[in-house]
Amino acid sequence: MARTFDAVIVGAGIVGASLAYHLAERGARVAVLEAAPAPATGATAKSAGGIRLQFSNPQNAALSAESLKLLKAFPETIGVDAGYRPRGYLFLHPASSWPAWSEAMRRLRALGYPVELLPLEKAREVVAFDSECLVGASFGPEDGVFDPPTVALAYLKAAREKGAELFTESPLLKAKKRVETWRIETPKETFEAPLWVNAAGAWSARVAERAGYRLPVEPYRRSVYLTAPAGARPGPLVVDAGSGVYFRPEGPRYLFGASHPDQPPGFFEGVDWEWFEEVALLMSQRFPWFSSLGLDLKSAWWGYYAETPDKNAVLGPVPGLSGAWVATGFSGHGAQHAPAVGRRLAGWMLEGQEGGLAAFSLSRFDKGARVFEAGIV
Ligand SMILES: Cc1cc2nc3c(=O)[nH]c(=O)nc-3n(C[C@H](O)[C@H](O)[C@H](O)COP(=O)(O)OP(=O)(O)OC[C@H]3O[C@@H](n4cnc5c(N)ncnc54)[C@H](O)[C@@H]3O)c2cc1C
Prior knowledge:
Layout: E1 3-4, E2 7-10, H1 14-25, E3 30-33, E4 50-51, H2 58-72, H3 74-77, E5 89-94, H4 98-110, E6 116-118, H5 120-126, E7 134-140, E8 144-145, H6 148-161, E9 165-167, E10 174-178, E11 181-185, E12 190-193, E13 195-198, H7 204-210, E14 218-226, E15 237-240, E16 246-250, E17 253-257, H8 273-286, E18 301-307, E19 314-317, E20 324-328, H9 334-351
Parallel strand pairs: 1-12, 2-3, 2-13, 3-9, 5-15, 13-20
Antiparallel strand pairs: 4-8, 5-7, 6-7, 10-11, 11-12, 14-17, 14-18, 15-16, 16-17, 19-20
Helix pairs in contact: 1-6, 1-9, 2-9
The structure holds flavin-adenine dinucleotide (FAD).
């Protein structure tokens, strides 16, 4: 006998968890299917935990702003500290990217976002760097860090208190439309629901294939490296936009990384040590003090970005397959967008209000349209 629900969510990362909560809060009976033995073990557990309002695309900035509001209210609404700390984000830009970036940050300021443009001398008061090729900096004082796995688990707990059910070790094997409902098979049980959402992150193209549609989302390995304890104090996440390297304090250490521009797609396993050499070199060139720090190779980790062709999320209904929805493809900014995306997508699914998410629709790729974001890290 199939278990029937109003909505089935495939994937119990932060995106599926936020959506489960927001659907259950609106009274929907929700099942969350997770392939792994526990929730929040995919990219959600591998994130660097950054959240920033500094995006060049106003829709991305708005998703962060709404998420930030939801995370700040977490203790009252969900009963848990989301770990949000306003440490700031500092972007350092070379001449090639500065005109477009500074213009985008001016637009955000005009909309009331807390974003500042800093001359390099001022930026150097925040962190020491070699200014070769740099022309300007931007700083977001409310940008910072939070704790994505805690948020995902808290959303799931709150969703379950509202009647949602979580099924672990339950990978979607097949999804098939039967008149008005979808029939979703897992090795243990079969589920039926008029609505279901593919929130399987880096694995979402596989899930789509099992439901008979194509999703242009590919996994890309991304590694995060750590220094040995170095007496670091709380400070901002710093992005050297030209090279792509970023770092931030993590306790007394520094956490750092960069997206490998030539990384082929695929589920490559293990920390990327070849790329590590290059990242460490780029870090030392821009931040000369970094070369005197010891490294803690054992603490490094890796995870997978889920990337679309324009590196922005794909959200909304699957064209031609009524009742099938997607929420995936966030590259390196899905943890911070999950609270707002879950809330808005739940409204779209149940009340038909797209809530500004239509720009991220799957159909954009068939129409040759793209979402442009200059701030992909
Ligand atoms: C190294 C790294 C650093 C990052 N840093 C940041 C950051 O600073 N800020 C930020 O906002 N974002 C960051 N991200 C991105 C962020 O982690 C992701 O965008 C976000 O976690 C995506 O959440 P998700 O729920 O979509 O995916 P996931 O957390 O990956 O969840 C997807 C779930 O689907 C499950 N699944 C897979 N196949 C099936 C199936 N067949 N059936 C059922 N379940 C299935 C998986 O087991 C998994 O639990 C980073 C990512 C990485 C890898």
